[in-house]
């Protein structure tokens, strides 16, 4: 089973950018659809974006469409989430997750990282 580790979170002002990284180990990331999820304070965990195994298919939640970009480098066993034009409502713990099938439902993802905190100030 693949193990995932997120990095790149931090504090940013509104309008700024951050890039989150997801490092995979124990298995090839190319075997999985990768999803990014987030959970804000007092909120349910929500799907943010997902990318197919070879990177040809990308999907985004409406709340981040046009601002966030998901990508992957299978040769490096890495996935990324580029976040631009950040807003205070993007404040959350961000998780990467791996799934054999993908989709926007968290139950489809069997492997999860520990998360990285993103805080956006007004």
Explain the overall architecture.
The protein is an all-beta fold. It is built from no helices and eleven strands. The strands form two sheets. Strands 2, 4, 5, 6, 9, 10 and 11 form a seven-stranded mixed sheet that branches. The protein is globular. It starts with a strand and ends with a strand. The model has no long low-confidence stretch (mean pLDDT 97).
The whole-angstrom Rg is 13 Å
The SSE order reads EEEEEEEEEEE
Low-confidence stretches: none
Instruction: Please state the average pLDDT score.
Output: 97
Fraction of residues in β-strands: over 45%
Task: Give a brief description.
By secondary structure, the chain is mostly beta strands.
Observed structural traits:
4-stranded antiparallel sheet, 7-stranded mixed sheet, mainly beta, single chain
Layout: helices, strands, pairs:
Elements: E1 3-7, E2 10-13, E3 18-25, E4 33-39, E5 46-51, E6 58-60, E7 68-73, E8 78-83, E9 92-99, E10 111-112, E11 116-121
Parallel strand pairs: 2-11
Antiparallel strand pairs: 1-3, 3-8, 4-5, 4-9, 5-6, 7-8, 9-10, 9-11
